[in-house]
Amino acid sequence: MMLGASDERLVQALVEKAQLGVGFISRDLLDEGWRRLQTTTVAANARPAPARRAENRATVRLWLGGFATASALAALALIVYQALPLREAPPLGYAVTGIAATSEGVVTSGPGQQAHLLFSDESRVDLAGSTKLQVESMDAHGARVVLLDGSVSVNVKHRANASWVFAAGPFRVRVKGTVFRLGFVADQGNLTLHMTSGLVEVSAPSDRTIAVGAGESIELVATPPERQAVAMPTPKPATEEPTAGPAPVRAIAEAPPVIGKIESTRPSGRRTTTRAGQREPAIEASPISWSDLLASGNFAGVVADAERRGIEPVIARATATELASLADSARYTKRYALARQVLLAIRARFAGSEHARDASFFLGRLAETSSSRAEAALAWYDTYLGEASRGLYASEALGREMTLLARSDPDRAHKVARVYLERFPHGPQAELARSLLQSDPE
Q1: b/e per residue, 351-370, with b = 16+ CB within 10 A?
Q2: What's the CA gap between 383 and 338, in Å, rounded?
Q3: Residue 270: per-residue pLDDT
Q4: Pairing of strands 132-138, 94-98
Q5: Separation CA 277–CA 171 (nearest Å)
């Protein structure tokens, strides 16, 4: 059956409707659609029809003609749809409410006033008073927002393909769907993050990535190199315990299960010989990217893959970055003994590196998980601050140390409070520091 003029007009109307939804359709594409459509229709009409009574033949022929026309219309629509590239969703938009000044994507809330950014995907960013940020770019999947100074509460709508980045100084916070509070003091390079739900990845200087999950808080500082270090109060001598173990740095190297000198720190899938003539266990190369697992919040997957490859070989041969990822994953899955083992290995194998210094901070965090190990936690924080007084976690280490000392050693807590306020007058523990100084008998 050939399509008549009325059928052709009907199909043309359908094409015009389709163009409204999918955009311009070229003449060549339409010609190809008609060619395939007529070939399909002729082939369908060539099939023998079953014998029918003469009085029904005209009705059946009319019904088949209508069915063929409808099928042809559907086939043409499908041909055109399959031949056209999918149109990308439009980029997000946003509106600003509340009291704020706006200029070229920069939004500044008034002192003591709140402002709100309401995005078209139902995500929102609430600005505290005197906060300045810039919406740098947007696409269909999310936005890049630069927090220039102040603090925001963020609620990113969870979507499968969501991709948001919040930048603050040298830090980058990557999110998919989550709720958190983010603060940044520009003149101090001080970033604070408190997670309510979901998971984010924080990229810090020196290519360090920190996963922060629901209910966790972290405070980071990136200090300009020209600033001078502030003298820290002299810590109390700490005693090493077989189980709690942190205080003296000289004793740390005794703990990790690493024998002799490691000739290579990268996984190679083969055995190598140590200086003592002993053989290290082989490490199996993993097809799984731990960074990808961390980005998706699959901490258990990282631990499981390490166990599949063998914890001892991994600890002995993995890179510092891989071990840091494993330690984070073990902490988040409450495998605290494994996390401590890995962190101690980092300090032994990569002594003097940023990863080793960071490990002392996280060993302090681990010690805090046991109420009987406050002294161990303090010793690790002292170790970190002694090695990296201007390190990434200096603000949080000082704040945690001050909190622990406030319960057990008020005199030392006062000294730490003075240092904290001198360095981080707007930090999250500034109020506690001021209260401690107000109660100072001196």
Answers
A1: eeebbbbbbbbbbbbbbbee
A2: 21
A3: 36
A4: unpaired
A5: 44
SS3 169: coil
Asked if 424 contacts 221 with a C-beta cutoff of 8 angstroms, the reply is yes
Whether the model clears a pTM of 0.70, i.e. scores above it, the answer is no
Question: Locate tokens 């920190």: which residue?
Answer: 210
Show the domains of the chain with their CATH numbers. Answer: 5-83 (no CATH), 94-221 (2.60.120.1440), 249-438 (1.25.40.10)
Q: Beta-strand (E) ranges in 169-213?
A: 171-175, 179-185, 190-197, 199-204, 208-213
Question: What secondary structure letter does DSSP report for 34?
Answer: H
Contact 258/318 with Cβ under 8 angstroms? no
How far is the first Cα of the chain from the last one, in angstroms, to the nearest whole number? 103
- Helix or strand holding residue 270 (H, E): none
pLDDT, tens digit (0-9, with 9 covering 90-100), for 53-83: 444 454 445 444 544 444 555 455 545 445 4
Name which of 321, 184, 320, 349 is nearest 256 in CA terms.
349
Provide the Cα torsion 253, 254, 259, 263; round to 10°: 10
Q: At what angle do helices 394-408 and 354-368 cross, to 10 degrees?
A: 30
Nearest of 322, 382, 329, 371 to residue 350 by alpha carbon: 322
Residue 144 amino acid letter: R
3-class secondary structure, 416:
helix
Instruction: Name the CA radius of gyration of the chain, rounded.
Output: 32
207 DSSP assignment: T
Q: Is 149 helix (H, G, I), strand (E, B) or coil?
A: strand
Confidence category of residue 28, pLDDT binned at 50, 70, 90: low
